[in-house]
Design brief:
The chain has one domain. It is about 35% helix and about 40% strand. The chain has 3 helices and 12 strands, in the order ααββββββββββαββ.
Length: about 240
C-alpha cells in the first residue's frame, strides 16, 4: 500500500473521530442540562402555585366584602321604606340586641314594602348558628339561635319575609351571610344612639338607623366592618 494512501486514510479517520467527538454528547453532558431545566421548571411551578393561591385569596376576600356591602345596601333600602302606625296592629318596628360570646348580635323586625311579596310585608333579620349535634354523628342539626349554640363559633345572618297580615312566625329563613362576627343595629333617639327599640312602647319609629356587620376575610381571618345609615322616610317630614 502506497505511503500517500496510508496517510490519506489516517487523516480521514482522524477527521471522522474529531467530528464524532464534536457532534456527540457524554452522559454527564446530558444530565447537567436536564437537571438545570428540572430546577427551573420546579421553581416556575412553585411561583405559579403561590401566585394562584394569592389570587384566590384576594378573590374570596373581595367576594366576602361585596356580600357584606350588598346585604347592607338591601337592608338600608328596606328600612327606608318601613313604617309604623299605632292604630295598625300588623305594623311593627323592633330592634333587639344581645352580647353572645363577646359578639354584638342584633336582630330587627319591621313592616315595609318590598318587591319580593305583594302588599305590606314583615321583614326580620336575625343571627343564628349551625350547631354540631354530638348525638348525631357530629353532623349539623340545623339553624339555631345563639343561646342554643353554646360554644358555637360559626354564626350566620338569616332573613325572613312574610305577609304583615300573617300570624305564621315559623317561616323558613334564607341565609344571607355566614361566618358573621358581629351584627349591630342602632337607632337614633333624640341625640343618642340606642341599641334597642320597640315602637309599641315608644309609639314611633326612629329617624335614622345605623347598620354594621363584621366578617372575617382571607386566610389570616382579618376582620372588616361595613356600615351605613338609613334615614326612615315614610311618615317623616321631607
Amino acid at each position: 500500500m502506497p505511503t500517500d494512501f496510508k496517510i490519506g486514510v489516517i487523516f480521514f479517520m482522524t477527521r471522522i473521530k474529531a467530528y464524532c467527538r464534536q457532534t456527540g454528547f457524554t452522559l454527564l453532558e446530558i444530565l447537567i442540562p436536564i437537571t438545570i431545566i428540572s430546577v427551573i421548571i420546579i421553581a416556575l411551578y412553585s411561583a405559579f402555585a403561590l401566585s394562584k393561591k394569592a389570587v384566590d385569596a384576594v378573590d374570596n376576600s373581595l367576594i366576602r366584602l361585596q356580600e357584606a356591602r350588598n346585604m347592607i345596601d338591601v337592608l338600608k333600602r328596606e328600612l327606608e321604606s318601613s313604617f309604623f302606625y299605632s292604630d295598625k296592629s300588623y305594623s311593627v318596628f323592633k330592634i333587639t340586641n344581645r352580647d353572645i360570646y363577646d359578639r354584638q348580635i342584633a336582630g330587627i323586625t319591621f313592616t315595609a314594602f318590598t318587591h319580593l311579596l305583594p302588599g305590606v310585608c314583615k321583614i326580620s333579620y336575625t343571627v343564628e348558628g349551625n350547631r354540631t349535634d354530638k348525638t348525631n354523628g357530629g353532623h349539623k342539626s340545623g339553624l339555631r339561635t345563639p343561646e342554643e349554640d353554646f360554644g358555637q363559633q360559626r354564626l350566620a345572618l338569616i332573613k325572613r319575609i312574610t305577609s304583615a297580615y300573617s300570624d305564621n312566625d315559623k317561616t323558613e329563613g334564607v341565609e344571607l351571610m355566614e361566618d358573621v362576627e358581629s351584627f349591630t343595629i342602632e337607632a337614633k333617639y333624640a341625640d343618642m344612639w340606642v341599641k334597642t327599640w320597640d315602637s309599641e312602647m315608644i309609639n314611633n319609629i326612629p329617624a335614622e338607623v345605623k347598620i354594621s356587620i363584621s366578617v372575617n376575610i382571607g386566610n389570616e381571618k382579618k376582620r372588616i366592618t361595613v356600615s351605613d345609615t338609613a334615614k326612615l322616610r315614610i311618615g317623616k317630614a321631607i
